TrEMBL record:
Pathway: Amino-acid biosynthesis; L-methionine biosynthesis via de novo pathway; L-homoserine from L-aspartate: step 3/3; Amino-acid biosynthesis; L-threonine biosynthesis; L-threonine from L-aspartate: step 3/5
Binding site for L-homoserine: E216
GO MF term set: homoserine dehydrogenase activity; NADP binding
Record InterPro entries: ACT-like_dom_sf (IPR045865), ACT_dom (IPR002912), Asp/hSer_DH_NAD-bd (IPR005106), HDH (IPR016204), HDH_cat (IPR001342), HDH_CS (IPR019811), NAD(P)-bd_dom_sf (IPR036291)
Biological process (GO), any one: threonine biosynthetic process
The encoding gene: hom
Family: Belongs to the homoserine dehydrogenase family.
EC number in record: 1.1.1.3
Binding residue positions for NADP(+): L36, G37, L38, G39, T40, V41, G42, G43
Keyword DNA repair: no
SUPFAM superfamilies: ACT-like, Glyceraldehyde-3-phosphate dehydrogenase-like, C-terminal domain, NAD(P)-binding Rossmann-fold domains
Protein known as: Homoserine dehydrogenase
Domain of life, per lineage: Bacteria
ACT domain segment(s): 381-461
């Protein structure tokens, strides 16, 4: 077994003996954590730190001690031990001298925002799973952390147990990222999967996701794409070095997806997935979250249930796919505790305790603009309900052709309630052109009901 001295021997090259001994004394002291929030993630992190304590200590060289738990709802089911102090006064906890690292797993913007700011101002390192907070206030918080020489670690904020932040900052660090497309909301994927495979009703599946602890406190965040937009904001900042720009993400949820379109998409060889997409285009960056038809044979099309996956297209390595559980106690705690371990290593092994976790860009590293929805380019699935009259198809295809929209496939379905459903797949087109063409088609007297439009991605370049 490697002794503690051996494992730390590189310090003797870098530091004088006195510095080395004082470093060693500091290193052997436990690192003290305050865990704020005792819900699914907080409970999971406590359990993981306890059950894997020996292995974690071996990997970090230091003991991790939980000194405080901050919660308004104590959990008698969790064995905290006698040394852990419990309090509902979160601001007081983060000011305490026997706290080195604050682990914020409460979720929600307030009071997490105030508590994290106070922690940073008191020189505490921060680990957070709070995607909403980072997406909406991250530019300010990362700047504050930088000014106060502490780090904010955020692996658990995106895709639960998949270490996608580490992938971006380490594994793919040599690459230019061209685009990424992710299933980054487990609840939404769970609902779409159950609807497709078992024909279950939307509300029934959502209720189950809530009971299993996957869904957000406000489940509209899951089904309307807001949670995915928070995560995409963070991923895009990692990928492109742009500031966090949640307000510029085009966001559409899954609540309007019908069993009829799921079925027609399958007949055409596609699956409908709710994707977060960040893409470097010629004239800017696209940030978009929406239901998307993708070829059924793609690996990511076969990611089912609550699982998440992120497909990254990078210039040197090409496409790589990361898959795993995107929500739940164990997977999210795995990411939280990995961040704690990173910080413990930084505190212990860097000469000045400086961080090695790259912080998100709080200032523009690039002037690339974020494109508006009208400027984005995607393929399309269009479904129209038309009267069964001669020339309908010709009228529709003429409008598309005049708009310069290339048709990839057309499928006419059997009559439904006196109308003929017609499904058209198009090649990629700028959305403003599609808006104009669909407005003209919608105005044809033979077209009934609202035209259904779902974006389509071939994911092949
Ligand atoms: N509500 C989120 C999801 C939890 O379903 O993915 C994990 O961020």
């Amino acid at each position: 077994m490697i002794s503690f001295l051996e494992s730390h021997s590189f310090f003797s090259y870098d530091l004088g003996l006195v510095q080395y001994i004082s470093k060693l004394e500091c290193d052997v002291k436990p690192v003290r954590l305050a865990i704020l929030g005792l819900g699914t993630v907080g409970g999971g992190a406590l359990k993981l730190l306890k059950e894997n304590a020996a292995e974690i200590k071996r990997r970090t060289g230091r003991e991790i001690q939980i000194t405080y738990v901050g919660t308004r709802r104590p959990r008698p089911d969790l064995d905290l031990g006698d040394e852990v102090k419990q309090s509902a006064d979160l601001l007081d906890i983060v000011r305490q001298p026997d706290v080195d690292v604050v682990v914020e797993v409460m979720g929600g913007i307030h009071p997490a925002y105030e508590v994290i700011k106070e922690a940073i101002l008191h020189g505490k390192q921060v680990v957070t799973a709070n995607k909403a907070l980072l997406a909406e206030h991250g530019n300010e918080l990362f700047k504050l952390a930088d000014d106060n020489a502490v780090q904010i670690a955020y692996e658990a904020a995106v895709a639960g147990g998949i270490p996608i932040i580490k992938v971006m900052r380490e594994g793919l660090a040599a690459n230019k990222i061209n685009w990424l497309a992710g299933i980054i909301n487990g609840t939404g994927n769970f609902i779409l999967t159950e609807m497709r495979e078992k024909g279950r009703a939307f509300a029934d599946v959502l209720k189950e996701a809530q009971e299993l602890g996957y869904a957000e406190a406000d489940p509209t965040f899951d089904v309307e794409g807001i949670d995915a937009a928070h995560k995409l904001t963070i991923l895009a900042s990692c990928a492109f070095g742009i500031p966090l720009q949640f307000d510029k993400v085009y966001t559409e949820g899954i609540s309007k997806i019908t069993a009829q379109d799921v079925k027609y998409a399958e007949e055409l060889g596609f699956r409908i997935k709710h994707l977060g997409i960040a893409r470097r285009a010629a004239n800017g960056i696209e940030l978009r979250v929406h239901p998307t038809l993708i070829p059924a044979e793609e690996l990511i099309a076969n990611v089912n249930g609550v699982k998440n996956a992120v497909l990254v297209q990078a210039h040197a390595v090409g496409p790589t796919l990361y898959y795993g559980a995107g929500a739940g106690a164990g997977p999210t705690a795995s990411a939280v505790v990995a961040d704690v371990i990173d910080i413990v290593r930084d505190i212990s092994y860097t000469e000045d305790g400086a961080g090695t976790i790259p912080q998100l860009a709080f200032e523009a590293l690039t002037n690339v603009p974020i494109l508006s929805r009208e400027e984005m380019t995607t393929g399309y699935y269009i479904r129209i309900n038309a009267e069964d009259q001669t020339g309908v198809l010709a009228d529709v295809t003429t409008i598309l052709s005049r708009a310069g929209i290339s048709i990839d496939a057309i499928m006419q379905q059997p009559r439904l309630k006196d109308l003929i459903p017609i499904v058209i797949l198009t090649d990629p087109v700028v959305e403003s052109k599609m808006d104009e063409a669909l407005a003209q088609i919608q105005a044809l007297p033979v077209i009934h009901g609202e035209i259904v439009r779902i974006r389509l991605e071939s994911l092949d370049n």
